[in-house]
Amino acid sequence: MDTLQRDDRATVSVSPREIEQARNVREWLGGKESAAVTVETGPNRHLTMPPELADLVLQLVDLVGRGCTVTIGSIPNEVTTTVAAGMLGMSRPSLMKLVREGKIPAHKVGSHTRLYSKDVLAVRRAQLESQSKAFDELRALEEELGLRD
Questions:
Q1: What one-character-per-residue DSSP string does 11-74 give?
Q2: How far apart are CA 114 and CA 33, in angstroms?
Q3: How far apart are the first and last CA of the chain?
Q4: Cα dihedral sign, 88-123-120-93
Q5: Are 61 and 49 in contact (CB under 8 A)?
Q6: Average pLDDT over residues 35-43
Q7: Could you tell me the CA-to-CA distances from 40 to 43, 44, 131 in Å, in that order?
Q8: What is the predicted pLDDT for the residue at 104?
Q9: What percentage of the chain carries pLDDT values higher than 70?
Q10: What is the distance between the alpha carbons of residues 26 and 38, in angstroms, rounded to a whole number?
């Protein structure tokens, strides 16, 4: 595993062997959503990760095993409307329309509108679920009409 670090950013290059190992771990876990992760820190010394951190590590292993590119970063608790719009893949005016309609909660900090990241992420999850449902319905319609091989 090669790591390139500049300032507060790092890029980790994953080898084909590590990807294969990640796939093996995915298969071994068999779709479990969570499991304990214990790390050997020395002779007869082990550290069991807290469940939240273990879930993160297992999610990373799953993504690497699927060949995904993974970016890790922190998200502030509160974001500007410009950042929130970017997170949702929409224009700022479209976001502000959702705020005015009460479809996404926001609050004022002085004269500026701010949104909590958890609310923005909840909207994003709902968008992805809606897209997935629409795609599944389209695939079912294609099968019904005999358009799929």
A1: EEEPPHHHHHHHHHHHHHHTT-S----EEEEETTEEEEPPHHHHHHHHHHHHHHHTT-------
A2: 33
A3: 41
A4: positive
A5: no
A6: 84
A7: 8, 8, 42
A8: 95
A9: 93
A10: 16
